[in-house]
Amino acid sequence: MTDRPETSGDGAVRFARRVLILLAHPALEKSRVNRRLMAAVRDLPGVTFHDLYQAYPNFHIRVEREQALLASHDVVIFQHPLFWYSTPALLKEWQDLVLQHGWAYGTDGTALRGKWWMHVLTAGGRRSAYRREGYNRYTVRELLVPLQQTANLCGMEFLPPFVVHGTLGMTPGQIEDHAAEYRVLVEAIRDGGVELGSLQNLDQVNDRDALGKRPRETGTDGVSNDAR
Ligand SMILES: Cc1cc2nc3c(=O)[nH]c(=O)nc-3n(C[C@H](O)[C@H](O)[C@H](O)COP(=O)(O)O)c2cc1C
Fold it and tell me: What are the Cα distances from residue 110, in Å, to 66, 68, 74, 100, 155?
């Protein structure tokens, strides 16, 4: 792994990690936040962007195509709005069909071993609502436990989520800030600037700056100021 893209003998730029972003939003035309997040990363060199609802509006997922995409990348980022404390339906269908026994898990199911699994998600609720004493009682990371265990079963490394909280009252400027931060994070992952060890115990990857070097400033209750 290197911090910089390398140029191979054929002149093509090679990055430290090949990143695949799977977007799942059933009504992108109405989206304020995911649309902007998408625009910040979809044209990044070395990053493959795949809009699942656009590809499969009737839920007829092409399993071999999805498996080939996963096999040819090192990191998969699931970008989606939080729906009923979970993912939009197509992403569940994607898991049910694509993560096959004998391919993703089971004795001979080793295709995904060592790859990284991460969620980039948007939530209507503020971060203060996602804690024990809050309205939603659980943190977003806790709510993602079934997905974390799915990654574990496939031998993958589960990274803390990047969460954009409080989408409903968010100003265009705030959305822009989150989009810029998302872009920096994806670039850092791609370029080998993110160390797993420094992130794994975080509740959200937003709790450090995108390069994982410096804790972000928090209020007295430990909740990031931008997420209240
Ligand atoms: C069907 C549905 C379920 C939702 N469930 C949740 C939820 O469980 N928790 C939450 O904080 N927001 C929830 N929301 C709010 C969305 O997460 C929010 O509108 C979205 O993240 C905004 O992103 P967008 O502008 O890209 O659509 C839900 C919205 C819909 C339509």
Answer: 16, 14, 14, 11, 8
Q: How far is the CA of 166 from the centre of ligand 1 (A)?
A: 10
| Beta bridge pairs of residue 101 | 105
Helix (H, G, I), strand (E, B) or coil at 128: helix
Tell me what pLDDT residue 79 has. Answer: 99
Q: Give the closest residue (by CA) to ligand 1 atom 28.
A: 83
What number does CATH give the domain 6-227?
3.40.50.360
CA of 121 to the centre of ligand 1 (A): 10
pLDDT at 118 over 70: yes
Q: d(Cα 109, Cα 96) in Å, to the nearest integer?
A: 15
Nearest to 17 by CA among 6, 8, 9, 28: 6
Say what the pLDDT of residue 183 is: 97
**Count of alpha carbons within 13 Å of 217, Cβ hemisphere only?**
2
Question: How many Cα atoms are found within 13 Å in the side-chain-facing hemisphere of 83?
Answer: 13
- Per 3-state DSSP, what percentage of the chain is helix, strand, and coil (rounded to 5)? 35, 20, 45
Of all protein residues, the one whose alpha carbon is nearest to atom 2 of ligand 1 is: 83
- Around ligand 1, the residues with Cβ closer than 6 Å are 25, 31-34, 81-85, 122-125, 167
- 218 — pLDDT class (breaks 50, 70, 90): very low
Q: Which of 34, 41, 51, 83 to mutate to test the pocket of ligand 1 (most atoms within 8 A of CB)?
A: 83
pTM of the model: 0.91
Question: Which ligand 1 atom lies nearest to the CA of residue 129?
Answer: 11
